[in-house]
Amino acid sequence: MAQVTDNRRSGRSLVLVVDDEDDIRWCLCAALALEGYEVLEAANGHEALARIADRRPDLVISDILMPRLNGREMCRRLRANPATRHIPIVLFSSLEPSELAGACGDSYIRKPGDISYLLAEIARLLAHH
User: Fold this and answer.
1) Closest CA to 39 of 21, 54, 58
2) Which of 112 and 55 is assigned the larger pLDDT?
3) 14 pairs with which residues across the strands?
4) CB neighbours of 56 closer than 8 A, spacing ≥ 6?
5) Which of 52, 66, 79, 90 is paired with 20 by a 20 to 30 Å CA distance?
6) Could you tell me if 21 and 43 are in contact, meaning their C-beta atoms sit under 8 angstroms apart?
């Protein structure tokens, strides 16, 4: 079994960005890195769960509509696991708020979204975590 890395050593919060669209994932990762966050990325929920098993992030930003394992199911699995249920999740999706039934994020931002609002929401969630 892999040893889960502690992010507090670096003094920077670790954010996992999960999105199947390469351009969106790249833009989010670049913006987060410029703000001083350490960033991991995954192209779907299955890949995200594997990343989290190796290195537990302080926060997850996730799309909902993705191949292999969608954001709803990934969130459900994170919330069902006592080791990961506390991780704040920001849902970043093109879905309407009325279409979010079954999604278990702590916050929702509609794509394409305002990056400054997203960064403020991340800071708010991390401050209260």
Assistant:
1) 58
2) 55
3) 38
4) 4, 5, 7, 14, 83, 84, 87
5) 79
6) no
